[in-house]
Amino acid sequence: MSEAPFQVFALHSSHDRAGFQCGSDPLDRYFQQHVSQDIRRRVTACYVAVSNDQRIAGFYTLASASVLLADLPGTMAKKLPRYPLVPAVRMGRLAVDQKYKGLGLGGALLADALAHAVRAEIAAYALVVDAKDESAAAFYRHHGLAALFQQPMTLFLPLATARGGLGL
Ligand SMILES: CC(C)(COP(=O)(O)OP(=O)(O)OC[C@H]1O[C@@H](n2cnc3c(N)ncnc32)[C@H](O)[C@@H]1OP(=O)(O)O)[C@@H](O)C(=O)NCCC(=O)NCCS
Question: Which residue has its alpha carbon closest to ligand 1 atom 21?
C-alpha cells in the first residue's frame, strides 16, 4: 500500500518552517516569525502538513470566534437562539507552499480544519474564514463556503453541513 503523501500534525518546535513559501510574504512571515508566540499566548492553534521528506507543505490556524446572528442568512438565523452572537471556529490562515500547489492539499487542509472543529468538545455553529483576496475567496466558495452578510471576504460553513460532507 502506498504511504499518504502528507501527514498533519500540530506545529512543533522540531518542524522546520524556514523555507516555507506560499507566494504571500505576510503569510510566510507570520508562519516563520509569529505563529509560535500566538500559540504560546493561546490565541491560536496551528496545524502543518508534512511531506514524506519532512518538509512543511502547508499550514492552517484555528481559534475561537463568533459571528453576528444578524450576519447569517435569515433561513439559518431563525433556527438559532436569539442571542446576538453565534459561536464559531475561525480558520485565520491557510497556505500551501508553492512547490505543493494544485495537488489537492489546500482542500485537504480545509477538510482537516473542519474535522477538528466538528470533533471539538466545545460547540461551534460554523467554521469562519478570512479570505486575504478575491482568489482566496473563490477557493473557499469552490468548497461550499458562503459570505457573511455584506462581507464578501469573510466566509462560513455550518459545521452540521461539514459533518455530513465529511461523513463524520
Ligand atoms: C488557496 C490555496 C490554499 C489553495 O491550495 P492548493 O493546494 O493549491 O489547492 P487545491 O489543489 O487543494 O485545490 C482544490 C480545489 O480548489 C480549486 N481551487 C484552487 N485554488 C482556487 C482558487 N483560487 N479559486 C477557485 N478554486 C480554486 C482547485 O481547482 C481544486 O478544485 P477541484 O477539487 O474541483 O479539482 C493556495 O493556493 C495558497 O496557499 N495560496 C496562497 C495563500 C492563500 O491565498 N490562502 C487562502 C487563505 S487567506
Answer: 139
- Any ligand 1 atom below 6 A from CB of 92: no
DSSP structural state of residue 129: E
Whole-angstrom CA distances from 44 to 55, 65, 93, 101 are 22, 11, 10, 24
Task: Please compute, for residue 156, the number of CA atoms within 13 A of its CA located in the half-sphere on the CB side.
Answer: 26
**Is it the case that residue 2 has pLDDT exceeding 70?**
no
Residue 131 DSSP class: -
CA 108 to ligand 1 centroid distance, Å: 10
Residue 3 has pLDDT above 70, yes or no: no
pLDDT surpassing 50 at residue 84: yes
- pLDDT for 1: 46
Query: CA dist 62 to 111, 127, 134, Å?
Result: 13, 9, 21
Closest CA relative to residue 110, chosen from 78, 81, 145, 153: 145
